[in-house]
Amino acid sequence: MMRKGVLAVVLVMVLSATAAAESTYLEQILVRTGASLQWDPYRQHGTISRGSEMVSFGIGRETAVVNLEELYRIEPPRRAEGSILFGPRFVSLALRLFPPRETLRRVGAIFIDAGHGGRDPGAIGRHEIEGELKELREKDLVLDVSLALARMLEERFPDKTIVLSRNDDTYLTLEERTDLANAIPMAPNESVLFVSVHANASLNTRARGFEVWVLPPEFRRRNLVSAERTGVDDPDVLSILNTMREEELTLESVLLARNVLSGLDAAVGDRSPNRGIREESWYVVRNARMPSVLVEIGFVTNREEFQLLQRRDYLQEITRGIYNGVVNFVDNFEEVGLE
């Protein structure tokens, strides 16, 4: 959201075990403390605030400013993996200013959307392999991955509801998919995750790799909160609450995307290029009132990737990568405090 040259950005978190002992990514601080960020991209300067407390910092600067008057010496913040990395002095300062709030939120359900189906085959790849014409249909690939992913998540999270948009070769409209996800009953402190699984195609037959899509941060969904759920009738207040919920979903979606992308990279990154996080207002993502991502597992139009996607063991590794990403997100989402 752009206001007078100050960009409130949503950055992304991947916290490795080795980095955790010495440094902390910005997003971990924001998620655990409930603080918000204002970012000036021109000055490379940010302010983290919650209530009446605030702390300002700059990339490469050795001091932080608390409440516009007190100076604290810190390790210079630096950019890393598309985020900002802080040393232990800044983390300690931030935790004193913004004591972590105990979270009662949990992931109550995970909705897995296998793209296409029925009369809609999705992307189709055809290649001659060893003198024989082979064909792969997106709807079949993503159903195999989605069914396996659901089984793994059911075993890992017996206390959560795992829902598939389809478990066979059934055609569903885009609206039906999001309606199913939005209709999952949840307690006020629970959230649903939406993971849509697809395979890619391109006129450029050299295009290959996996990627994860999220909504652009400037996109605004409506009706995320209601008077019935909040007990608020004032439309102006509801509008503010809706904006706050939208920004929360944007952050959580990006964190989910980053975790899934990291899981896929660890699983198959040595054989398929990591194309990163992409932004687009896909229907199923923009109409899901929950943290949501769309995963593209590879290009059926690329001969080399086509041969990989034909292999059962490779699809199992793809599934494992998505699974690890979702599990890592859930574990962090439901953690209490900042480790």
What does this structure look like?
With 339 residues, the chain is an alpha+beta fold. The protein has two domains: 96 residues, Copper amine oxidase-like, N-terminal domain (Copper Amine Oxidase, Chain A, domain 1, 2-Layer Sandwich); 228 residues, Aminopeptidase (3-Layer(aba) Sandwich), CATH 3.40.630.40. Helix content is 36%, strand content 27%. The chain has ten helices and 18 strands. Strands 14-11-15-18-16-17 form a six-stranded mixed sheet, with helices on both faces. It has a five-stranded antiparallel sheet with strand order 4-5-6-7-8, covered by helices on one side. The chain is globular, with a radius of gyration of 21 Å. The relative contact order is 0.15. The N terminus is likely disordered.
Defining key terms:
339 residues, Copper Amine Oxidase, Chain A, domain 1, Aminopeptidase, 2 domains, 5-stranded antiparallel sheet, 10 helices, 27% strand, disordered N terminus
How would you summarize this macromolecular structure in one to three sentences?
This protein is 36% helix and 27% strand.
- Gyration radius, rounded: 21 Å
Mean pLDDT: 84
- What's the number of extended β-strand segments? 18
Which strand order spans the largest sheet, edge to edge or round the barrel?
Answer: 14-11-15-18-16-17
How far apart the termini lie comes to 30 Å
How many DSSP H or I helices?
10
CATH class of the largest domain: Alpha Beta
Uncertain regions spanning at least 5 consecutive residues = 1-21
* CATH topology (fold) name of the largest domain: Aminopeptidase
Strand content: 25-35%
User: H/E series, N to C?
Assistant: EEHEHEEEEEEEHEEEHEHEEHHEHEHH
Largest sheet geometry: 6 strands, mixed
**Architecture (CATH level 2) name of the largest domain:** 3-Layer(aba) Sandwich
Helix content: 25-40%
CATH homologous superfamily designation of the largest domain: Zn-dependent exopeptidases
- Briefly note the structural class of the backbone: alpha+beta
User: How many separate domains make up the residues?
Assistant: 2
Q: What is the general shape?
A: globular
